[in-house]
Amino acid sequence: MNPAVPLPYRIGGAAWFALIGLQLLWHGWLARPEHLPTWLVLGVTVIPLLLPFAALPDLRRALLWVGILSLFFFCHGVAEAWSAPTEKWLALAEIGLTLMLILALGAGVKRRKPAG
Fold first, then answer.
1. How far, CA to CA in Å, does 79 sit from each of 14, 46, 87, 104?
2. Where is the chain membrane-spanning (predicted)?
3. At residue 1, does pLDDT exceed 60?
4. 21 pLDDT exceeds 90?
């Protein structure tokens, strides 16, 4: 990434790519789905994370899209951590990455100075 990119956006980008990697590892290799085709689960979890690449020249906008999408992944991580003890560590990693992404977006917001 460009060194002129602010640190929060670099952290958010790293969390975004790590979230993509986690989905590929989780659903494609470590804990393959039992009742659904693997390609379907990967399509539902990975393709939405790839869509913001269309806005990538503007990293801030791409991360905003990913931040909105990450709310789904946060909910998925909480549900899996609660209901699937064997996959709890993967779910906690998903929760951690989504929180890192959302916090990075919040840290990167430019605040306006109060008038007067």
1. 24, 18, 11, 23
2. 7-26, 38-56, 63-83, 89-109
3. no
4. yes
- Domain residue limits at 25: 7-107
User: Region 18-32: what's the mean pLDDT?
Assistant: 95
| DSSP single-letter state for residue 30 | I
Spatial separation of the C-alpha atoms in residues 3 and 25, rounded to whole Å: 29
pTM of the complete model beyond 0.85: yes
Burial degree of 18 (CB within 10 A; 0-12, 13-18, 19+): middle
Does 76 fall in a domain? Answer: yes
Give the pLDDT confidence score for residue 3 in this predicted structure.
67
Residue 78 inside a domain? The answer is: yes
Mean pLDDT of the chain: 91
Task: Classify residue 53: in a domain, yes or no.
Answer: yes
Domain count, the chain: 1
Q: Can you tell me the distance from the alpha carbon of 115 to that of 12, in angstroms, rounded to the nearest whole number?
A: 30
Q: Is residue 115 part of a domain?
A: no
